[in-house]
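Figure 6 in text form: structure in, sequence out.
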């Protein structure tokens, strides 16, 4: 494996010759892999190739141990250049050539069309442009927190510099002193739609300088010029060594194949076999190899094992739960803040890297993170009004051995950032999203901030756990549970203060002996005639309705469905066997708990009369009680509709 000594000022002729030979072999793989697959992105792969080939000769890495903790990281933000990335990783010995060429872009293969961590050496699944730099920021911040003197390199396209999230990431990198971060930009001036300045005019160099980064410009196809630029970053010989650095590499799309150069057509189109043969001839390879490999690929079985990429584990102490007595009336978000602060006190010890991190977006006080910040200032990350970046950087940090909590209002935590969370899930992160201000319960802030449409979005994210506590005690228990959870979790809550839920003896239902169990509903009240299934902020209205119905001699059950995924299907079926079911929720009817209940009954072939009560139109600005009354979610409306359901 080629390893270049950074103490030298220039590359030797022998090193340049070696790099050129490696480049030639990698170009061959790019052409073959895309032509054999009949699709792919050869153009940008070729323009980025000199950077990639040289980069792996300079960084600290071990192909035999791709997840070496003390490694440098390479994040490929424009993930469509997977043919180039896989070709270079193959060149450096991460895996043999044959499975890459035979399996690229085939169903079940590790070698996806955009870079994926199932391939050893790939640090982050990318493809949705603009997110790679945020992930790289998370990795660079993790290295800083752990005091590991390694670097993160983010290879990017020039077109994706148009993305707003890229600028968000640049600002974050400066604020948190990520001078261990370098962005390498493939400046070939082309994107799918043609010349970048025609698609969307921008001055990339000046925009980066305006966010206080070091900027180095280099010839992206001259190994010595690239070496000089990379060496300046690695040795700290830049204008502001305390700042991150961007290398703007002047390149040509399709570089190395005469008829492909500077033509956007080849951004996302593979060469047909006849042109692939012509390209191989230009490189000095046997063109007949195309026909041989095309035939071989027809019967080649997928065999290369996907590389595991689970999050780095973190072990935390969860401590003793806080008990809120019957006379206490507080909001769930305050209970969350206290639980989070206690986790910091237990696990973030002076003189050691913190284990628990908190991230928010200019809403520290509203999401109750102030106590956490005071307890553990190094672990607190104020990201500003930059939710897209915050969601991605939080996801990346959660893979690096940190228990990471990302908190903001529901509309920002979910509706605004669903694509970022989708990429987090694909990257097998372990992020804890705690969203406050969900539902009509947001009240006077009005419909733009009343997050009533999040469950349908979250349920599309495969494997994401979804919880919504009903009072401060259950909030405390759920937060301590998710601190031990290994995967991605969403915890939602409203804004208002809620009474402590009591059992019929007048004691806290979620008392000192209560243990939160995922997938298990809480039977708050036992009755025989019907069941109300609800969750979250409407529970006081539901319990008030239960009291009114009881006074009239109507005995019903109340199920608190705090665990929305996994869902307690057994409890739903049991409720259907008992009688009619009413679902009450501070959420859009069509995509909320009512939909889950109906699906469960249909799946198991159970019949029950259903009444689905939820949000049927966007609300107005007003007190939550009035908004609930407008939409029939108040106690009197619940009583009225339950009587009709039983009639």
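Output sequence:
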């Amino acid at each position: 494996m080629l390893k270049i000594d950074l103490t030298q000022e220039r590359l030797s002729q022998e090193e340049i010759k070696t790099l050129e030979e490696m480049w030639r072999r990698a170009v061959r793989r790019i052409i073959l892999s895309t032509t054999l697959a009949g699709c792919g992105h050869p153009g940008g792969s070729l323009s980025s190739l000199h950077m990639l080939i040289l980069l792996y000769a300079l960084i600290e890495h071990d192909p035999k141990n791709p997840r070496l903790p003390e490694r440098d990281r390479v994040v490929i933000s424009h993930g469509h250049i997977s043919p180039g990335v896989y070709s270079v990783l193959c060149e450096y010995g991460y895996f043999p050539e044959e499975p890459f060429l035979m399996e690229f872009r085939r169903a079940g293969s590790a070698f996806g069309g955009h870079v994926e961590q199932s391939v050893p050496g790939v640090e982050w699944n990318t493809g949705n442009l603009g997110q790679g730099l945020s992930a790289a920021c998370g990795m660079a911040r993790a290295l800083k927190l752990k005091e590991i003197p390694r670097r993160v390199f983010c290879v990017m396209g020039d077109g994706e510099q148009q993305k707003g999230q890229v600028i968000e990431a640049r600002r974050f990198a400066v604020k948190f002193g990520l001078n261990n971060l370098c962005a390498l930009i493939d400046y070939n001036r082309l994107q799918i739609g043609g010349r970048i300045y025609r698609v969307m005019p921008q001055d990339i160099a000046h925009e980066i300088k305006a966010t206080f980064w070091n900027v180095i410009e280099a010839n992206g196809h001259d190994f010595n010029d690239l070496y000089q630029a990379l060496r300046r970053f690695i040795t700290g010989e830049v204008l502001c060594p305390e700042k991150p650095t961007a290398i703007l590499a002047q390149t040509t799309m399709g570089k190395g194949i005469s008829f492909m150069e500077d033509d956007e057509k080849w951004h996302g189109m593979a060469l047909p076999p006849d042109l692939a043969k012509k390209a191989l001839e230009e490189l000095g390879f046997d063109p007949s190899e195309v026909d041989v490999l095309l035939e071989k690929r027809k019967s080649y079985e997928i065999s290369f094992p996907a590389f595991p990429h689970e999050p780095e584990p973190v072990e935390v102490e969860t401590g003793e739960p806080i008990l809120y007595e019957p006379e206490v009336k507080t909001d769930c978000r305050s209970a969350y803040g206290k639980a989070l602060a206690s986790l910091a006190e237990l696990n973030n010890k002076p003189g050691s890297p913190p284990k628990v991190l908190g991230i928010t977006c200019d809403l520290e006080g509203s999401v109750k993170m102030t106590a956490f910040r005071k307890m553990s200032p190094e672990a607190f990350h104020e990201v500003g009004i930059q939710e897209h970046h915050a969601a991605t950087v939080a996801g990346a940090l959660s893979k690096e051995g940190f228990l990471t909590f990302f908190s903001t209002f529901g509309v920002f935590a979910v509706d605004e950032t669903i694509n970022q969370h989708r990429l987090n899930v694909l990257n097998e992160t372990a992020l804890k999203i705690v969203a406050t201000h969900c539902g009509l319960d947001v009240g006077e802030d009005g419909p733009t901030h009343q997050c009533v449409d999040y469950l349908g979005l979250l349920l599309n994210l495969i494997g994401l756990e979804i919880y919504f506590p009903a009072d401060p005690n259950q909030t405390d228990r759920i937060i301590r549970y998710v601190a031990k959870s290994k995967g991605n979790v969403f915890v939602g809550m409203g804004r208002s203060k809620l009474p402590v839920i009591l059992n019929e003896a007048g004691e806290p239902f979620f008392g000192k002996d209560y243990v939160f169990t995922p997938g298990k509903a809480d039977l708050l009240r036992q009755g025989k005639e019907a069941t109300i299934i609800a969750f979250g902020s409407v529970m006081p209205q539901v319990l008030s309705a239960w009291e009114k119905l009881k006074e009239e001699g109507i005995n019903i059950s109340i199920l608190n469905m705090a665990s929305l995924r996994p869902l307690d299907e057994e409890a739903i079926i049991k409720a259907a066997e008992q009688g009619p079911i009413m679902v009450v929720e501070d959420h859009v009817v069509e995509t909320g708990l009512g939909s889950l209940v109906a699906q469960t009954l249909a799946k198991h072939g159970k019949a029950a009369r259903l009444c689905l009560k939820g949000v049927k139109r966007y609300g107005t600005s007003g007190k939550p009680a009035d908004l609930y009354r407008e939409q029939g979610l108040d106690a009197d409306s619940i009583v009225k509709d339950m009587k009709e359901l039983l009639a």
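Caption detail: The chain has a mean pLDDT of 97.
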